[in-house]
Specification:
mainly beta; Thrombin, subunit H; 6-stranded antiparallel β-barrel; 5% helix; Peptidase_S1_PA
C-alpha cells in the first residue's frame, strides 16, 4: 500500500497519521492452489494443422451460438463454472442464446463425452478496446457447474510461470476454425504449434502498437490459427510439471498463414482480475 500527501510547494512539511483496518468481505474470494488436478491430457485443420486425439485436450471448449447452431469461437475451461475467451467473441452474442460445448471433438458426430451448458453471464475486461484490440479477454460463467472426468477438466492457469519469459517457446493453438482464409470450418478439433516471437519484431512486421506486457505474437511457417479460432487457448507444457498451462488467448491476425505474426492476449497479467471476478471459485495452479 502506498500512501502519499500532496501539499503546496511552499509548505514547510509536517506530519499526518492514518489508520489501516482490515474489513472482512461477506463474499469468499476466489483462490488458487496446487492441491488439484489440471492440464491433463488424453495423449494418444487450423491452417495446415493436424487433428487432435479424441478429447486429447480436456479443457478445450467452444462457444455455440444457438441462432446459427455453430461454434463461433474457442474458449477454455478454467474451473467447473467458468471458461475464458476473447472479449471480441462475445460482442455480438447474448447470454440467452449462447452455450458452451465441452468434451467435443468432431462436431459432425454425437458422443456421450460431449455436453452443452448454457451460460449465465458474460464479463469482458473493463478496458477492452475494440479498435486497438488490446485487453481482449472475457470471462463466461456457466449456468450449471460441470463435473470433471477423463474427457472434461480445467486447464492450469499460469500462476507458477507468470513472470517467466516465453519468447522463443513453442505453444499449441487449438480450434474448429477455417482451414484457410475464407475457407470451410473444420468439424474436427485441430491443433498446430507456433513460436512466440519477439514483440519488437512483431511490431516492425505489423507496423502496429503491440503491448509486450499483455500480448504475445506467434508465427510458424505455413501454419496458423484462423477465422473462428478466436478466443481459443495458447497452451504450453510447463517443464516442471509436464502439465498444460494456458498462457494466452487467440486474438487477431492479418489473414491466416500469410507470413505475418498473429497477436494473442497474454493471460498472466489478467490473473488477479480473474480471481476478483469469480467469487468462491477454486483454480488449479500446477
Amino acid at each position: 500500500i502506498a500512501v502519499g500527501l500532496n501539499t503546496d510547494e511552499e509548505s514547510k512539511g509536517g506530519k499526518f497519521s492514518c489508520k489501516i483496518r482490515a474489513i472482512s468481505s461477506k463474499r469468499s474470494r476466489a483462490v488458487y492452489s496446487s492441491g488439484c488436478n489440471c492440464g491433463y491430457s488424453n495423449r494418444v485443420r487450423i491452417v495446415n494443422g493436424s487433428p487432435t486425439g479424441v478429447n486429447q485436450y480436456v479443457f478445450m471448449a467452444g462457444l455455440v451460438d444457438s441462432v446459427s447452431r455453430s461454434i463461433v469461437c474457442g474458449a477454455t475451461l478454467i474451473s467447473n463454472k467458468y471458461v475464458i475467451t476473447a472479449a471480441h467473441c462475445i460482442r455480438n452474442l447474448n447470454v440467452a442464446n449462447t452455450a458452451v460445448v465441452l468434451g467435443e471433438h468432431d462436431t459432425s458426430t454425437d458422443t456421450q463425452a460431449t455436453i452443452l451448458v448454457r451460460t449465465r453471464s458474460f464479463k469482458s475486461y473493463p478496458y477492452y478496446n475494440a479498435d486497438s484490440k488490446k485487453y481482449d479477454i472475457a470471462l463466461i460463467e456457466l449456468n450449471t457447474a460441470v463435473t470433471f472426468n477423463n474427457n472434461i477438466g480445467p486447464a492450469c492457469l499460469p500462476f507458477t510461470s507468470a513472470n517467466w519469459e516465453l519468447t522463443g517457446q513453442v505453444v499449441t493453438v487449438l480450434g474448429w476454425g477455417t482451414t484457410e482464409y475464407g475457407g470451410p470450418r473444420s468439424s474436427v478439433l485441430l491443433q498446430t504449434n507456433l513460436n512466440i516471437v519477439d514483440i519488437q519484431q512483431c511490431q516492425d512486421t505489423l507496423e502496429g502498437d503491440i503491448d509486450s506486457y499483455t500480448q504475445y505474437c506467434t508465427i510458424a511457417q505455413n501454419t496458423d490459427s484462423c477465422q473462428f479460432d478466436s478466443g481459443g487457448p495458447l497452451v504450453w507444457i510447463n517443464p516442471n510439471t509436464n502439465r498444460y498451462q494456458i498462457v494466452g488467448l487467440i486474438s487477431y491476425g492479418r489473414g491466416c498463414a500469410f507470413g505475418y505474426p498473429a497477436v494473442n492476449t497474454r493471460l498472466a497479467p489478467f490473473l488477479q482480475w480473474i480471481l476478483d471476478n469469480t467469487t468462491g471459485e477454486n483454480f488449479c495452479a500446477l
